[in-house]
Amino acid sequence: MARMGMAGAICAAVLAAAASAVAAQPAQPWRNPKLSPDRRAELLLNRMSLDEQLALLHGHMPVLMKTAPPGVIRSAGWIPGQAKYGIPAQAESDASLGVANAGRGDGDDAAPLPSGLALASTFSPALAFEGGAMIGREARRKGFNVLLAGGANLARDPRNGRNFEYLGEDPLLGGLLDAASIRGIQSNHIVSTAKHYVLNDQETGRQVLSAEIGEAALRESDLLAFEIAIKDGHPGSVMCSYNRLHGTFACENRFLLTDVLKRDWGYPGYVMSDWGAVHSLASAKAGLDQESGAEIDKQVFFDAPLRSAVKDGEIPAGAVRQMAHRVLRSLFAEGVYDHPLAPGGLDTQADSLVAQRVAEQGMVLLKNDGGVLPLAARAGRIALIGGHADVGVLSGGGSSQVVPTGSYKIPPPKGAPAWGGGIVYHPSAPLAAIRRRAKGQVDYADGSDPAAAAALAKQADVAVVFVTQWNSEGVDGPLQLEHGQDDLIEAVAAANPHTVVVLETGNPVLMPWIGKVQAVLEAWYPGARGGETIAKVLFGEVDASGRLPISFPQSEAQLPRPELPGLRNAKPEGATTAQSEPPFDIDYLEGSDVGYRWYAAKRLKPLFPFGYGLSFTHFGYGRLTATGGAGASVSFTLTNKGTRSGTETPQLYLVRGPHRAQQRLLAFTRVTLKPGETRRISLAADPRLLADWDEKSHAWRRDAGRYEVFVGPNAADQALKGEVTLAAATAAP
Ligand code: BGC
């Protein structure tokens, strides 16, 4: 000590203290779950080289790998882990309606939910959460921690081949349900996307089309659905879409990725591309963080080219770090980092009951003359016809395809996209389920011969015709029923006055025979236990309680674009991205007036309006009071006027603001009432739907004044009209 001197002693003490502080610090401080996800990402990135960061930014496509590394599951995407940092591999699976498994062969079971439109027909965020939680649970057990789910594209066109994966035409309904489903998935410590951001609203030309729409209209429609889904659902990732907006690819679009998503909405997660949607490094500059399925892009842009761009000073190293930060942040925030996957067996039987609950509440009774349904009340012979009702229920095709064990497949039509090897019928046969319930004999004809079907129907007390319309990713579908099914219905209806039609369709269809049949049930693609559920609804074991999340047109002439844009040059696509079609623009002339808003603005009467659906009982609306001021709310009485318990979905709409007529769904709820029961219901308008986007002030603006509203059972039935006076309000984007 003497020789060291005082200064030396202090210095030694400081060094010793510092050394012991280092020793006390964990070697990998980002492992501390008490730190914020951002802090953890920072600490980890401080140790990572540029190459290690770049490795987080591009994914491989196991289904295309000649030899997949051990442990890699054949699925849509995979990003290797980095064991020395404890970063798990990102194992990605499609999961819009269940854990997709097309291409992995038989025995890879999973429970398929009903289609997105069926889920949206429930108007139930609680069920959307339950469905998402079920998918997430199965995904973890199967070894996936990133799910390509959360489809939030608006149904701008009822012919869009992927509407069955999405949640209908309304931004509030779709956004709230998408948020709930994302929260459900992520409750399993895995990441979900919200996809496809944005305006991939038809499949025809999806790689080349340019959407043309003004900013305010976009913010009030498609972007609003995503805004609600993202702000309320907190997905770890957002997938940008194939199409262009005003000529610029969505995955290279600074306005969409940086200005709106990251700046205006403050989104902290990462943007991944759709598969084959990256065309250049412009995407890195515009706000894309991760290139997916890089094998199918022209180059793996987010590998060597991005490294060179950093070396050349074209892209700052800090930008790459930011991209990697967003990926890591989501892995920390959603628990992917802290909760390693624990693969194990699935209980698809139990999980299928979740699918059944969605189907029960999502089937929509469109017509029921003379109370032909429920069938339980009728004895006698039933003729079941068509739709492969003897083997199962139809599902939609494409990357979302779930193939449960025991599925029945038929070859897809010529020219259909090359996914999944067939048209999949989930093994839940309506015929068996109906036979179990019927009091009398149940006969079946496959419907291939309308005359034979009519002869069978003639001998029966009731005829139930099952019609199917297959929709798939990669191709849009006609509104007319295919394969002569209109003629089949006509023939059966001519033979039996008590004809019931059950639709298993991915989209609305035209119904030239509607006046000739007694009942129509829209069962959508009803999922794992669809046959059982159809029987339950037909026999009235549960009320018919679904309500349409999409308008059914009378004909194409009622649509904003009677002819589907790009159809003439269309080439069916496979999973890859052959861009052989000429680019074209779509003028979204309807602006934010999508679906029911368009019908209202043009004073058109659809075949069935948004929000519509019958119950086996009927309801009365009364005594509306409406309150304005800082927000709009209403209360009213709802009475079950029938003799059985039933469920109604009252809806609150705006019809006119201070300046113009504009219909918008503001609130909704599901209410179950006993026979004769009356309940007072309150609904508060979601403030996001009362404001307009003001491009000048770059903010949401609600002007002071009088707002006309109504409460009713659907978008076209103004059961109770009211008016509120609202104060002015503005809100940041
Ligand atoms: C689809 C996405 C899907 C991806 C991976 C794309 O073709 O548009 O929805 O997640 O493929 O399969």
Please report the number of helical segments. Answer: 18
What's the overall average pLDDT, rounded? Answer: 94
Distance between the ends:
65 Å
Radius of gyration: 27 Å
> Spans of 5+ residues with little confidence (pLDDT < 50)?
1-23, 574-578
Question: Which tags fit this structure?
Answer:
single chain; 733 residues; alpha/beta; 31 strands; 26% helix; globular; disordered N terminus; binds beta-D-glucopyranose
Layout of secondary structure:
Layout: H1 5-24, H2 37-45, H3 50-55, E1 77-79, E2 90-94, H4 116-121, H5 125-142, E3 146-148, H6 171-186, E4 191-197, E5 209-212, H7 215-219, H8 222-233, E6 237-240, E7 244-245, E8 248-249, H9 254-264, E9 270-273, H10 282-286, H11 304-311, H12 317-333, H13 348-362, E10 364-368, E11 382-385, E12 393-394, E13 408-410, E14 423-426, H14 430-437, E15 442-445, H15 450-458, E16 462-469, H16 485-495, E17 499-505, E18 519-522, H17 530-538, E19 584-587, H18 596-601, E20 619-627, E21 633-640, E22 646-648, E23 651-656, E24 661-668, E25 671-673, E26 678-684, E27 692-694, E28 699-702, E29 705-712, E30 720-726, E31 729-731
Parallel strand pairs: 2-3, 3-4, 4-6, 5-7, 5-19, 6-9, 11-15, 11-16, 16-17, 17-18
Antiparallel strand pairs: 1-2, 7-8, 10-18, 12-14, 13-14, 20-21, 21-26, 22-25, 23-24, 23-29, 27-28, 28-31, 29-30
The structure holds beta-D-glucopyranose.
Residues 76, 94, 148, 195-196, 274-275, 399 line the site of beta-D-glucopyranose.
